[in-house]
TrEMBL record:
<keyword id="KW-0560">Oxidoreductase</keyword>
<dbReference type="Pfam" id="PF03241">
    <property type="entry name" value="HpaB"/>
</dbReference>
<dbReference type="InterPro" id="IPR024719">
    <property type="entry name" value="HpaB/PvcC/4-BUDH_C"/>
</dbReference>
<dbReference type="InterPro" id="IPR036250">
    <property type="entry name" value="AcylCo_DH-like_C"/>
</dbReference>
<dbReference type="InterPro" id="IPR024674">
    <property type="entry name" value="HpaB/PvcC/4-BUDH_N"/>
</dbReference>
<feature type="domain" description="HpaB/PvcC/4-BUDH N-terminal">
    <location>
        <begin position="5"/>
        <end position="275"/>
    </location>
</feature>
<protein>
    <submittedName>
        <fullName>4-hydroxybutyryl-CoA dehydratase</fullName>
    </submittedName>
</protein>
<dbReference type="InterPro" id="IPR004925">
    <property type="entry name" value="HpaB/PvcC/4-BUDH"/>
</dbReference>
<dbReference type="InterPro" id="IPR009100">
    <property type="entry name" value="AcylCoA_DH/oxidase_NM_dom_sf"/>
</dbReference>
<dbReference type="Pfam" id="PF11794">
    <property type="entry name" value="HpaB_N"/>
</dbReference>
<keyword id="KW-0285">Flavoprotein</keyword>
<dbReference type="GO" id="GO:0016627">
    <property type="term" value="F:oxidoreductase activity, acting on the CH-CH group of donors"/>
</dbReference>
<keyword id="KW-0274">FAD</keyword>
<dbReference type="InterPro" id="IPR046373">
    <property type="entry name" value="Acyl-CoA_Oxase/DH_mid-dom_sf"/>
</dbReference>
<feature type="domain" description="HpaB/PvcC/4-BUDH C-terminal">
    <location>
        <begin position="282"/>
        <end position="478"/>
    </location>
</feature>
Amino acid sequence: MGLRTGEQYVEGIRNRKYVKVYVMGKPVNDAMASPFLKPSVLAFKATFDAAFQEDTKKLARAYSPYINEEVNRFNHIHQGPEDLVAKVKLLRRLSHKVGACFQRCVGWDALNTLYIITSKIAEREGKGVYRDRFINYLKYVQKNDLALAGAMTDVKGVRTLRPSEQPNPDAYVRVVEERDDGIVVRGAKANITGVAVVDEVIVMPTRAMTEKDTRYAISFAIPLDTPGVTVVVGRQLNDARRLEGGEIDGLPYMFNHEGLVIFNDVFVPWDRVFLYLDWAWAGALVEVFSAYHRQGYAGCKSGLGDVIIGTTYDLARQLGIQDRPHVQSKLTEMVFLNETMYSAGLTASWEGIKLLSDGGWWVNPMYANVTKHLVTRFPYEIARLAHDIAGGLLGTAPSEFDLKNPELRPLIEKYLQGVPEFTAEDRLRMLRLLENVSISAGYLIESIHGAGSPEAQRISMARLYDFQLAENIAKNLARIRVNIRLPEKVEPHRRSDVEG
């Protein structure tokens, strides 16, 4: 089949027998029937609908050489820099349609990561079983156009201790039993985007391992609807508004969620195991995945930035201040910050690296880390400038239920109106949109901690930059040491561990 419609995706996650999903302490059987989870389903649905909509179809589809037909790009293995660029562009465009995280990127990055790592293990160690299993799984995912969650972040327990040193041995997902037909795993993964509304979960190690951590060096995929799996959906700012039955305050159309996914002695058949006790490969897997995911933030965060800039400009027009020099200066600064993030992601894409003889296109790791480090800073400044222009009413506006009250509506319409061509309802809708997008976990908290916290990118950039070569360049110019031979490559960057 290769491509599912949004409605087919929704139907596919409706009938579940085993997984336990909890929202605010209560079990949820049908995500579409839950006011809390329905916006997440609709956000995921948008990634499927994009493959059939005229303005996104070319970006949202790609030809797969593995099943010889078109697939949804979210399940595609990158075949060149053009695919990496298309990823960033698709994420920006979809942000315009969703206004939130659409939750499908982590599973996509997991697929591309495992394609590279299982192929490298086969190439370096002659162990082709992982690659064979993964390719079969990839074909299954592409033919059925599955919605995937990527699960990397363990709960980690005591941060200064390695997995094998933890007082709670289940602080990292581990193997607790090996059987003839598969393995049994136990543990939990935290902050997993969209996990309650996916078809399958791909689990990966979250850090480099030592030989003592062998039983934690595992990667596998299972249907979410597997015995022993429990999902506890996390809370976010303003999330209870979704339960109020309104259509302005809570932005109930599309939104994202994150959750804690618990594996309580879950059985995984061997054909779904892609890394097993191979502790030496855990670090490379994390590096490949992290760079992919950091590159992608250029698309979704700049797309949400467009929403914030457009909303802020509209609110300025409603107040009649859009042409004031200080407002123009702030709007231009927002554009500069937004396009800088986007440009870095495109650079990471066009400067991509081929890691395998048959493809395996990876992003440029330096520019991917630069991209994400910009994302840890710029969304906060964009949001600050937006809040400055929007005014204090952003945090104190009456509710939509006040507006719908026949007694209050004429008063609110009178006192919240600015420029006459706009209504008070226009203003309230834009204020709520700005509030829900710019102060969200998906735009702010995720910008800091998604794909690794800021220090993780700083460590990566320091490792990748060749300070000694830069020093030699300076010495050559200062005539301290003359005629130092410079490498052919222009940038003073070291090869990453993965490239090596």
